[in-house]
Specification:
about 240 residues, Undecaprenyl pyrophosphate synthetase, 6-stranded parallel beta sheet, 7 helices, binds farnesyl diphosphate
């Protein structure tokens, strides 16, 4: 990884990734779509390591959306099982590297109880780590997150005139999470697809043709380099 072109003082604190293109990567090779997800998992953990080396403090990835239930049942079942196995295989190494694992998304009945337990175990194991906070968005939808925040406000009895942006932000899935500075989407699609809708109001967006299973540390460096060339004004001049 060539870190020379990177200004270490202006590394984004939080990068969020839409890991897209696993299916196309597999189809191009005549492999089942699930082989693309398996290759995508390898890419993901390389990116986690690269993020640590770059000094990024927060990394959030879109692993399974509230819309992904519409995929063929076999692929959904495979993904659920794969996520569970991946977590079991990787958590010790992540813990050793100082990664705090978190999850964002709806804990509804569609998510198998055993997977929920594994998620809670991984979060508990790594809760005190601070090198990198790695958030896996699972059964996540940006609109669902806002709906859930509003429901909590109403359930807490917050009166209408006390509902402002801060109040909503404090009721999102992870109130400590800073907004992403940079969002990366792979595979040539130029959409947000219901990812972190509230949080990415002022994020810089980086799109690449690279399919997620081919994404490596060097691509992360390229995205950070481009980010450092942008001027963030947050609505000011
Ligand atoms: C999008 O590619 C990717 C997904 C729906 C799943 C992302 C999952 C992984 C990278 C696997 C590992 C993740 C964890 C957290 C263990 P797509 O299937 O939509 O690709 P396509 O657009 O080419 O069909």
């Amino acid at each position: 990884m060539d870190l020379e072109a990177i200004d270490p003082r202006r590394v984004p604190a939080h990068i969020a990734c839409v890991m897209d293109g696993n299916g196309r990567w597999a189809e191009k090779r005549g492999l089942p779509r699930t082989a693309g997800h398996a290759a995508g998992e390898e890419a993901l953990y390389e990116v986690v390591n690269a993020a640590i080396d770059l000094g990024i403090k927060w990394l959030t990835v879109y692993a399974f959306s509230t819309e992904n239930w519409k995929r063929p049942p076999d692929e959904v079942r495979w993904l659920l099982n794969f996520n569970e196995q991946s977590l079991l295989r990787r958590q010790a190494e992540l813990h050793e590297r100082g990664v705090r694992i978190r999850f964002a998304g709806r804990r509804d009945r569609k998510v198998p109880r055993r997977l929920v337990r594994r998620m809670d175990d991984a979060s508990a194991l790594t809760a005190d780590n601070r090198t990198l906070t790695f958030t896996i968005a699972f059964n996540y939808g940006g609109r669902a997150e806002i709906v859930d925040a509003v429901r909590k406000l109403v359930a807490d009895g917050v009166p209408a005139n006390r509902i402002d942006e801060r109040a909503i932000a404090r009721h999102l899935y992870d109130p400590d999470m800073p907004d992403p500075d940079l969002v990366i989407r792979t595979s040539g699609e130029h959409r947000i697809s219901n990812f972190l809708l509230w949080e990415l109001a002022y994020s810089e967006l980086f799109f690449t043709e690279v399919l997620w299973p081919d994404f490596r540390g060097e691509h992360l460096v390229e995205a950070v380099r481009e980010y450092q060339q942008r001027e963030r004004r947050f609505g000011a001049i």
